[in-house]
Amino acid sequence: MKNISKLFILTLSVSLSISPTHLFAQEAPFSGSKNQKANYYFGEALKTYQGYDYPKTQNWLDKAVNADANFIEAYMMMAEMKMNDEKYEEAIKLFDKVYTLNPEFPRIYSGKSKAYFKLKKYDEALQNAEKFLSYPDYYGKKAELTLVKNNAAFAKSAVLLPVPFKPVNMGPSINSSYHDYFPGLTADEHTFIFTRLDLGRNEEFYISHKINDQWEPAQNMGTPVNTDGNEGTISLSADGQYIFYTACKREDGLGSCDLYISKLDGYSWSVPRNLGAPVNTNAWETQPSLTYDGKTVYFTSNRAGGFGKSDIWYTTFKNGKWSPPINLGPEINTTEDEQSPFIAKDDQTLYFVSDGHPGMGGLDIFISKKSKDGRWEKPKNMGYPINSDKSENSFVIASNGKDAFIAKEGEDTYGGLDLYTFELYEEARPQKTGYAKGVVFDAVTRKKLTAKVELIDLATGKTVVESYSNKLSGEFLVCLQGNKNYMLNVANQGYMFYSENFALKNQSAIEPLVLSIPLQPIANNVTMVLKNVFFDSEKFELKPESKAELDKVVQLLNANPNIKIEIGGHTDNTGEAKKNTVLSTNRAKAVITYLIANGIVATRLTHKGYADTKPVADNKTEAGRAQNRRTEIKIVP
């Protein structure tokens, strides 16, 4: 049974020698009881309630009202117990009994409003809330009942305008006879990790991989991530190479629950590391959510400096350390509980749960969009029936902005909470994002390689994502957002770097890209195309977007001081051959000029304009001609 009202919690701590009438004296006028037996029975009821013996408590209360049929305090305690036992109809009858004894007893209307709300009788809930709010605020209940009133008003309209919601159970490969909840998944939706209340005792992580579009039976992640303690609320990096999660009561913990990180080292997870101060404190830190670029973590905490019981905060990784967390502010946080943040891959859409914003009751899921000035807009309730009269939680959404996952109870559950997937209705979706994933390997031996992978915004020259391919599988994944042009750079010592261009400036929707990336060992006559060196048509002035790529050439030459390179300019076969030769030569010279200006000795550089003499594709198509218009570098003796 849940705790009953603050009034009775307070009552339990007060000496039983004080009369019950005195305990309720702040809510005059009261009838009290002049019957000493009734007072004695009520005192015994308080004792047994404090000892969690609810049947005996009810028995003592029955004796109290038998001794004094007008004993308001006893009826109110009975009603509160019925409320906490979710017997709302019976509670209303008891509140009505008190009404016959004293219609000006304010807590009648407070209790009835909550009971009617639970019964989904929203008009009655509104009426009783308004009646209660007409009285003085005796026990600090006005804020609580204002929220009940607002919830009733919202729920009344929400049930008349339901949003599309068709949840599909994820099946026995994921769900069990225990509670399964708090999902996390990679950007490609191929790895799924979630929390299970294993054997009904400890929270443990389970992992499943999607093979041939089907989830494999989930397996316990095992040590060192899972321990004899509780682990929960996981967030995976977009590429699945890192996990951030909550662990409680650890020897290296700073508070009751802290945030931890573990890295996928080949095929095994590293020993988890506490994120430490200033992220973790002696308070409660939990429920992390990692941004698409791996640089920011949103999380829940009840640390000092918040707006309510628990708030949402964020921290950013800068210069090798996590910044002091920042509260998301009153746009998101209330005086109640805000929890379970999930930041979508577009980095502009935040989902979270709250019982402080108007909703269906309990914890509801809300959505907020980031405005152009960086502030979060007023949260919107995700609507009914996604939100119900129960507490909703554990919401995440895939990078496609459409496939959503949630933990809930349903008629087809395998036991307790199960994980479901559903198609999120359009108005509540984040912007669709895509990803590029691939495998890095030695072009000669075909051995899989670990390599530094950088995604660079060509407009700003800033590195958006920096990661490494897995040392055993060679796999990597980076998220792509629309309406930007990117350079992908993959590099490893002793190899020519790999260059790719993603021209997405005019694309808001991005389809996944799968790449095979051979790295060429540095050797004479090895060539590579600089796919991010740009010129305007028939011109040879380097465009500003070329800087990021050419800086990588500078890094390559500085890291390998003994090599020399030839810069080769190439055109398609359109136009006059003589003009193309001049154009390709001048473009190659422009690259050399940039390299020399950035510290490369001129004697290490040569150039040649090849015009259209070395095509790599068919000049009969525009796509082929685009490939032939290129700048190359070649290692020369």
Give a quick summary of the entry:
The chain has 637 residues and is of the alpha+beta class. It has 12 helices and 34 strands. α7 runs antiparallel to α8 (122-133) and α8 (122-133) runs antiparallel to α9 (142-158).
What can you tell me about this protein's structure?
23% of the residues lie in helices and 30% in strands. The chain is α+β, with helices and mostly antiparallel strands. Helix 5 runs antiparallel to helix 6, helix 5 packs parallel to helix 7 and helix 8 (122-133) packs antiparallel against helix 9 (142-158). The strands form eight sheets. Strands 2, 3, 4, 5 and 6 form a five-stranded antiparallel sheet that branches. Strands 7, 8, 9, 10 and 11 form a five-stranded antiparallel sheet that branches.
